[in-house]
Design goal:
Elements (H helix, E strand, L loop, with lengths): L4 E3 L4 H10 L2 E3 L2 H10 L7 E5 L5 E8 L4 E9 L8 E7 L3 H13 L2 E7 L10 H22 L6 E4 L3 H6 L5 E5 L15 E6 L7 H9 L3 E3 L8 H15 L7
Parallel strand pairs: 1-3, 6-7, 6-10, 7-8, 9-10, 9-11
Antiparallel strand pairs: 2-5, 3-4, 4-5
The chain binds S-adenosyl-L-homocysteine (SAH).
């Protein structure tokens, strides 16, 4: 089984120094608690730590009454980021669906998630509630990265409207997924980044689709079946990883 992995928000130089000097790094309170109480790790077990740069460090863990400590033994730079940078623009949907979407987007290699209210979004979020929600989603992204082996934690940000999200999201290929679109989704080789926008349960409004097209997005169809909002972004990430990313091709 793969080592338990812990994200520690610290400078990579700190880990490299600890590895060079043979000193221990201290796990955060949250990571210590998770390692001790949930995973029930014991002194001497091997763990992996990462800080979001792509590099990871292995070491052996030890606990005292206060925290967990890792004596680092090696570092490596495994390639687990897709060769095409993927951005998901997701219209606000219910909290349970959003949690699920973020977790699966991280697992399928999405690097950035942009949340946007949409005319037909049932869920509205602003101010403190939005900040709390973003924090929870960022925690979910960290857990998913720990679990799936990514050493980069995807970014999550919020925009004030779909038009703003379309305007402020750049990529070589930008696909606005719409079940009523006349053209199928297509991706030509040579692109380094792709973004796809997914509407809420009721879809994007015609005005939102027009604002996306004005901002340079292409409204496209992803297969002949209408997918649920929580399926569409994940399906798009898998499709792109198959045609241009790091999934196997025949
Ligand atoms: N009745 C709505 C369906 C929305 S499905 C409508 O007709 O718009 C929720 C979202 O998933 C859509 O806004 C779209 O972004 C995406 N989606 C689902 N199935 C799709 C498909 N086959 N092609 C493109 N986008 C799709």
């Amino acid at each position: 089984m793969a080592d338990p992995r812990f994200f520690l928000p610290a400078d990579a130089a700190l880990f490299d120094d600890a590895l060079r000097n043979g000193t221990e790094i201290t796990l955060s309170e949250k990571a210590s608690h998770h390692a001790m109480r949930a995973l029930r790790l014991r002194n001497g077990e091997t763990v992996t730590v990462f800080c979001g740069t792509g590099r990871e460090w292995r070491g052996t863990v030890r606990f005292d009454a206060k925290a967990g400590y890792v004596a680092l033994t090696e570092s490596s730079d495994p390639q687990r980021e897709p060769p095409v940078r993927l951005t998901l623009v997701q219209a606000l949907v219910s909290p349970e669906k959003l949690d699920w979407i973020v977790e699966k987007a991280v697992e399928t290699g999405v690097s950035e998630i942009v949340l946007t209210p949409a005319a037909r979004s049932v869920t509205r979020l602003a101010g403190d509630r939005l900040e709390k929600r973003l924090q929870k989603l960022r925690d979910i992204a960290v857990s998913a990265a720990e679990q799936c082996g990514r050493n980069v934690v995807p970014l999550i940000r919020a925009e004030a409207s779909a038009a703003a999200a379309f305007q402020n999201t750049q990529a070589d290929l930008r696909l606005l997924l719409a079940p009523g679109a006349p053209r199928p989704a297509a991706a030509a080789g040579g692109i380094r980044s792709a973004a796809f926008a997914v509407g809420p349960e009721g879809g994007f409004s015609p005005e939102e689709i027009a604002s996306g097209e004005e901002a340079g997005w292409s409204a496209v169809l992803l297969g002949p079946r209408v997918l649920r909002t929580e399926t569409a972004g994940i399906a798009a990430a898998v499709w792109l990883n198959t045609v241009l990313g790091d999934y196997p091709r025949a």
